[in-house]
Amino acid sequence: MTTPIPSIPVQLAGQPTIGGLVVPWTTGRTPDGRYRFGAVDLDRHNQAMTDRLCQTCGVPLEDRIVLAMRDSDLRTLTSHEPGMHPVCAAYAATACPMLAGRMHHYRVTSLAGQLADLGVSSHGDPADARAGATAEPWQLVWASGYRVYTHPRTNLLAAMVLPEQILRVRRIGDSTPHEGHRPGAADSTGGETHP
Ligand SMILES: [Zn+2]
């Protein structure tokens, strides 16, 4: 399957690219400076979480924050990734292989392995449990804010969104927005199949 390379929005025009795809601001690098898609720069991850920066462009977020969450994240109202601008999230939803659902499985290399490659030690490992597992669908969650906390399982900074902070939820790849959807209310997260 060939996928057209999405056009890059103005907001991301200054970002480095690989193969025509924007490299997210929080992307980790190998010791010799090459970016590795899927690897996380923990310093930037933490800075983005704490300072409310966009994980894609690194610029401060505004009053509409978009978080990418899997179904299991939505149930716990937690995003393990920093927020994004709406325009950056829209780009990521089409350009990021995992968000766009082009990867049926997470790559088997765990985050711990990737971090080890990068010379970074990790305390927890959010990817270990899901390495090689079937990828869950992702949702884009529009929120008015979030609270940063250290996730007890990963020991990494995560973003918790309160139900009243959720403005809308849209399943990536689904063009129909679910206005006013609240997790725990009508359950749009289970049972749906995807083409
Ligand atoms: Zn952005």
Structure overview:
The protein has 195 residues and is of the alpha+beta class. The protein has one domain. It is 16% helix and 22% strand. It has 4 helices and 11 strands; from the N terminus they run E-E-E-E-H-E-H-E-H-H-E-E-E-E-E. The chain has helices at 42-51, 71-75, 86-95, 111-117; strands spanning 17-18, 21-22, 27-29, 35-40, 65-70, 78-79, 138-143, 147-150, 157-160, 166-171, 178-179. A 4-stranded antiparallel beta sheet has the order 5-7-10-11. Strand 10 (166-171) and strand 11 (178-179) form a beta hairpin. It is globular and about 40 Å long. The relative contact order is 0.16. Mean pLDDT is 79; it is low at 104-108, 121-132 and 177-195. Zinc ion binds next to loops.
Task: Provide a compact summary of the structure.
The protein is built from 4 helices and 11 strands, in the order E-E-E-E-H-E-H-E-H-H-E-E-E-E-E. With 195 residues, the protein is of the alpha+beta class. Strands 5-7-10-11 form a 4-stranded antiparallel beta sheet. Strands 6-9-8 form a 3-stranded antiparallel beta sheet.
